[in-house]
Write a structure and sequence with these properties.
single chain, 2 domains, two-stranded antiparallel ribbon, 14 helices, 10 strands, globular, NMO, FMN, flavoprotein
């Protein structure tokens, strides 16, 4: 299955691991790359630029195949030295970077000079057009179904992807709601060149998180997510647990402040969920695709199954409809 993305990134399958805070580590990324997709480690998971440099070295000890680094540019209570993280990527010879959140414009000259292909995550066509104008090699278009930050327009992938395909000339990666071969086939039909998966890769053997989290995703249905921080125009889709319900209740009150919510939505508390398996220790991101997760395979099994199922669907069912 060859697409503009497989050609651009030098990968075998049009399947990409999305950047995931606390989860995007070397073992999982290397497994995705070894399976023929594109593994991605998450820069800010590693705390310091030096720790990111070490993690890049670990990935390279596990695979010789292409992989990328995610850099999420968001307002934080504690200042982040994004410039230092970018310099680590450049010095390490990284060739693929996924950016998310704010525009990557301040770093584009450095990325371009280093020959780095930038994939920017967008939740709207207007933002994707801006990314294309900035010189991004591709965009990851997030539908409203996605985990994490779906933007404020609430446009699902069924509408957003074809709109993006009509407007853009650079390759498109479909993100949000993908977890099986049907999703991959649908994304390709809607104009995308690959799929980006986060939540689905959580429920794999190589994901370095507590088994309780993986099993929770297997047990969940499509309604097991909540939208928080809507009143601050910083919407996030997370797993619906006790903390999520508390945050939603506070926001419904109408006068909740960010200072009041900050202790509840703390990233460190979210990290405790993955470490301890206490599903109510904090907030943790999960997409509506949880309803499609029914097992905890290896990454190789998952990627192979998705691609094989998509190919069979295209050859047998869709082609068969033409007689």
């Amino acid at each position: 299955m060859k697409t503009r993305i497989t050609d651009l990134l030098g990968i075998e399958h049009p399947v990409i691991e999305g950047g995931m805070q606390w989860v995007g580590r070397a073992g999982l990324a290397a497994a995705v790359s070894e399976a023929g997709g594109l593994g991605i480690i998450t820069a800010l998971t590693h705390g310091t630029p030096g720790a990111l440099a070490e993690e890049i070295s670990v990935v390279r000890s596990l695979t010789a195949k292409p992989f990328g680094v995610n850099l999420t540019l968001l307002p934080t209570l504690k200042p982040v030295s994004y410039e230092d993280y970018v310099q680590v990527m450049v010095d390490a010879g990284i060739t693929i970077v996924e950016t998310a959140g704010r525009s990557p414009e301040p770093f584009m000259p450095l990325f371009k000079d280093a020959g780095i292909k930038v994939i920017h995550k967008c939740t709207s066509v207007r933002h994707a057009l801006k990314a294309e104008k900035l010189g991004c090699a591709a965009v990851s278009v997030d539908g409203f179904e996605c985990a994490g930050h779906p933007g404020e327009d609430d446009i699902p992938a069924l509408v957003l992807l074809p709109l993006a395909a009509d407007a853009l000339s650079i390759p498109i990666i479909a993100s949000g709601g993908y977890g099986d071969g049907r999703g991959l086939a649908a994304a390709l039909a809607l104009g995308a060149d690959a799929v980006n998966m986060g939540t689905r890769f959580l429920a794999t053997r190589e994901a370095a998180i507590h088994e309780n989290v993986k099993q929770a995703l297997v047990d969940a249905d499509e309604r097991q997510t909540a939208l928080i921080l809507r009143t601050f125009n910083n919407t996030a889709r997370i797993y619906k647990n006790k903390v999520a319900e508390e945050v939603v209740a506070l926001e419904k009150r109408g006068d909740a402040t960010i200072e009041e919510l900050a202790p509840l939505v703390s990233g460190k508390r979210g990290a405790m969920v993955y470490e301890t398996g206490d599903l109510d220790a904090g907030v943790w991101t999960a997409g509506m695709v949880a309803g499609l997760i029914h097992d905890i395979p290896t990454v190789e099994e998952l990627v192979s199954r998705i691609v094989a199922d998509a190919e069979a669907l295209i050859r047998e069912r869709l082609a068969g409809l033409l007689g």
